[in-house]
Write a structure and sequence with these properties.
single chain; 217 residues; alpha+beta; 60s Ribosomal Protein L30, Chain: A; 2 domains; 13% strand
């Protein structure tokens, strides 16, 4: 005979689900991974316990604990790399952030990335890329997106933005990052982050964005 889960489990499940959906805006990547793992583990543990005639509450606690450990370990590499990049870029104006879908994003503005109309990596950018490549877990994937300001036509800006992303990929490949793990793309001038009417705004728009993510499932 199938047992109906007690009231405390019905209360626990939505709480666990809420933890699983906790956002990066309020947590570090490691904390988010722990919460997600705990929530998913608790739901699974409770469901298995109830379905098999065991103690659903005990199953939820055990599942939550196991899930928390798994989630913590899953995101520890990302958290460690985030801290490394923050230390390496402190005071430079390079932005290191966690995205809503739990990727590590490094935004490198023109002061450190490329001269106007060029795809050659500037010397100031090399230490940042060296740090990114150092100790990078072989399973991680990278996506590099190049951008330009609105000066010039799409016929010039579109290939230039791709060339900038490819330059970063090639530099990282020279530091031991397999090119097959790196996707490149160019957005030309279509995704500005500032007003192109001013030189300061155009400088912010001439940038390269590097996204680092864990492998999927």
């Amino acid at each position: 005979m199938t047992r109906t889960p007690p009231l405390r489990i019905l209360v626990l499940l939505p709480v666990a689900a809420a933890l699983a959906l906790a956002g990066c805006e309020n947590m570090s990547a490691r904390e988010k991974g722990t919460a997600q793992g705990a929530g998913i583990g608790a739901v699974a543990g409770a469901a298995i316990g109830a379905a098999t005639g065991g103690k659903a509450g005990q199953g939820a606690v055990i599942g939550g604990a196991v899930g928390a450990v798994a989630g913590n370990l899953w995101s520890k590499r990302m958290e460690d790399k985030r801290r490394e990049m923050e230390r390496a870029t402190a005071g430079t104006g390079i932005e290191v952030a966690c995205t809503a879908d739990n990727q590590l994003k490094v935004n490198v503005p023109s002061d450190f990335s490329f001269d106007v109309g060029r795809a050659d990596i500037r010397p100031d950018m090399r230490p940042v890329l060296d740090q990114l490549a150092q100790g990078l877990d072989p399973a991680m994937r990278l996506r590099i997106v190049g951008h330009t300001d609105s000066t010039g036509s799409d016929a010039i800006n579109d290939p230039l933005s791709v060339q900038r992303a490819a330059s970063v990929r090639d530099y990282l490949a020279g530091r031991g990052v397999a090119a097959a793990r790196v996707d490149v793309a160019g957005r030309g001038a279509r995704e500005p982050v500032a007003d192109n009417a001013s030189e300061a705004g155009r400088a912010m728009n001439r940038r390269v964005e590097i996204f680092l993510r864990e492998p999927q499932g």
